[in-house]
Amino acid sequence: MSILKLDNLTYSYDGGKKNILNGINLEFEKGKIYAIIGKSGEGKTTTLSLLSGLTSPTKGHIYYDDKDLNKIDKYKYRSKMVGVIFQGYNLLPQLTAEENVILALDLAGKKIKHKKEVAKNALLSVELGGDKVRRRILKLSGGEQQRVAIARTLCYEPDIIFADEPTGNLDNDTGDGIMKIFSKLASEQNKCVIIVTHSDKVASFADKVITLKDGLAE
Amino acid sequence: MYIIKNAMRNISRSLGRNILIGIIAFVIAVSSTVAISIKQSAQTAEAEALKNLTITASIGIDRTKLQSEAGTDRTVFRELLSSVETLSLEDMQKYSASTEVKAFNYSLESSLSGSDSFEAYTETDTVVAATDDTKDINAPVKENLGGFSGIGQQGDFTVIGYNNTGGMSNFISGENKISDGTLFNFTNDNTCVISDTLAAYNDLAVGDTITVTNPNLDTENYILTISGIYTSTSTSDSSIEMKFSTAQDPANQIYTSYSTLSAITTASSTDATVSTNTDGVELTTALRSTISGVYSFANIEDYNDYKDNLTNMGLSDNYTLTSTDVTQYEASLAPINNLSNFANIFLILVLSIGGVILVVLNIFNIRERKYEVGVLTAIGMKKYKVATQFMTELFMVTFVSIIIGTMAGAFISVPTANYLLENQISAAQSTETQQAQNLGQVGSGGGLGIAPVSTESVNYLDNINASIDLSVTAQLMGIGVLLTIVSSLGAMIFIVRFEPLKILSNRN
User: Fold this and answer.
1) Partner residue opposite A90 with nearest CB, options B13, B14, B378
2) Domains contained in chain A, number
3) Is there a contact between B297 and B105 (Cβ–Cβ < 8 Å)?
4) pLDDT digits over B17-73, tens only?
5) Is B12 at the interface with chain A, CB within 8 A?
6) CATH number of the domain that A119 lies in?
7) CB B75 within 8 A of CB B503
8) Chain B contact for A147, CB < 8 A?
9) Would you state the pLDDT for residue B457?
10) Mind listing the pLDDT tens digit for each residue in B425-454?
11) Which of A54, A95, A106 sits opposite B500 (nearest CB)?
């Protein structure tokens, strides 16, 4: 059964003059990893923005758990049901790594007593520990920041994880480690992981690879 | 809860920005505290002064109205003035029958001369006090049985007869005190009280008698018995006008009962000789006397109501009710009212300028934190929650600054208020002095020798107890909340208009 369904998804800008997506029909299921690949400008990141509710389609519908996304509170959707790992990390620089993760827990409305422990475990799962968890974001390297961004998404266990180039700034070993975590989340926790990537290596972890070309999905 | 935690964390992690906002809020709080406390204290001082005010008033001819009717024609004004009769005691008593009037007292005043055994007190040789000399100056036509237009001669003493103690304001205020003997009786028993200065001057004691004469007819004598001697704190050398008349010297004032003085003036009228001079003016040897009625009121409202009701009670509009107490009270409030108005304007300016600065600062602040808004909304924080968090941050900073500012304001408001009030009083007094000098009215012992138009100086309310009470604190908190809301409003609009994807795309 699909957790996410795209029905004739169309997205254009400049008043419909430039089409990015041209009526895409796709279904995503729980327990699987999907890789969306394609050349630059083919609409990979736009697709991810549409799926995460950050923007609305020009035409067509997105159904989350058979519910039209337009009828769902987008903030609740992003804070509880799905997790987005942005390409630019989008972490709060005035907060520490741990506080960024705790903020996501707060937004998800998780009633957990030991939020610090949960945050630390989430950070440890992406191999970030020690005093680095208490460092402010700008005092962490690009790779470390990316790991914090991933931990922020993992901590509240959403049904779907969207990731835009999640291993882009990580070394091969850490990148592999992250991909293994995604695989584990899909296979053991029945999560749906949708990754936008240029990397064939990352795509090789996917159960299904979707190629975007000329506004259509192949 | 996490919104408050985040807000507190953000305050401590963006100290520079928040200290700047705090300083502005602090300055606004200090200025507002001073302004509000001055305003409030001025109102309290005004109310207190009003509460302690004993209001007495008299009905007199409305000269302003007559002057306006007459225009610039002085002859018409004189005619109008002479056509309006002064109110009789019966009329005054009739108008006292009103619920607003707390008490009605009346007195009779006349001027009498001394005798060989009883002379008016004079301070220096230059003072023209001798009976004959006085007459030389004021009444060169004694032989003609009266002065200008039959007004009569000015005597050496002012004799005042009261109907009861209620009207004896000099004794009630403590200016005069019985130091020996007792007060006169309020019956027609020819008893009186004289000043200790006059008693010493004439070597008189309680129980002695004095002989006063009609200044228009020195064969008309009246004998009064001294029942008491009073001391007066009024100085006899405080005004140059005393050099013209010994009767105006406080030492030469004789107090008796209304009945006694009324009997004397009635007897004088009965025995008077009336003649007409070459100008056709009727002259009389009868003692001139003036009756005064004083109405007392419990409060200013009663006074104002009574003033409004007088016409309904049948009083002609040629008369008006005037109160020196109310006039003095209003004049005494001038500096404090100026200060209060100044405080008001200052408060409006501070709030306007401070508010604008805070609004601009917050808009810059939000623009600077646009990325933060984008991230928070992108990971699922609702815009109103983002706005609430930002507003909480601002409110906390403003609130703390206002508390510190209020304390600082409370500390400096009293000296500031009194300093500003002192300046206002000084300015008012300077204007008053300047006006007096313009009119040739200089202080005692100099000048052109013209008596001041008004000898009553204004006792300005010269101290206010500027303090911070619950009301001031509540007003300040209100200002704080208002400033926070107003200054956040622009920022909130920005937040609502921000689209997370756009912000983050631009950033990326």
Assistant:
1) B378
2) 1
3) no
4) 889 889 988 988 888 888 888 887 777 777 777 777 778 899 988 888 888 888 888
5) no
6) 3.40.50.300
7) no
8) no
9) 55
10) 777 667 667 666 665 554 443 333 333 334
11) A54
B328 has a pLDDT exceeding 50: yes
Burial of B276-311, coded b for 16+ CB within 10 Å and e otherwise, reads eeeeeeebbbbbbbebbbbbbbeebebbeebbeebe
Angle between helices B324-332 and B334-368 (to 10 degrees): 30
Collect all residues of chain B within an 8 Å Cβ-Cβ radius of residue A106: 2
- Domain residues for A131? 2-217
**Radius of gyration, CA atoms only, chain A:** 17
- Residue B58 per-residue DSSP state: E
Sign of the dihedral through C-alpha B318, B324, B325, B330: positive
For residue range B3-16, list pLDDT tens digits in order.
Answer: 888 888 888 888 88
Please list the residues that pair with B59 across neighbouring strands: B321
CA distance B370 to B347: 33
**Which residues are CB-neighbours of B307 under 8 A, at least 6 positions away?**
B57, B321
Q: Please, which residues bridge with residue A61 across strands?
A: A7
List phi, psi (to 5°) of B210: -125, 150
The region of weakest confidence among A96-110, A187-201, B255-269, B360-374 is B360-374
- The Cα–Cα gap between A40 and A45 comes to 9
The ipTM is 0.92
Q: Please return the burial class of B251, using the count of CB atoms within 10 Å of its CB with bins 0-12, 13-18 and 19+.
A: buried
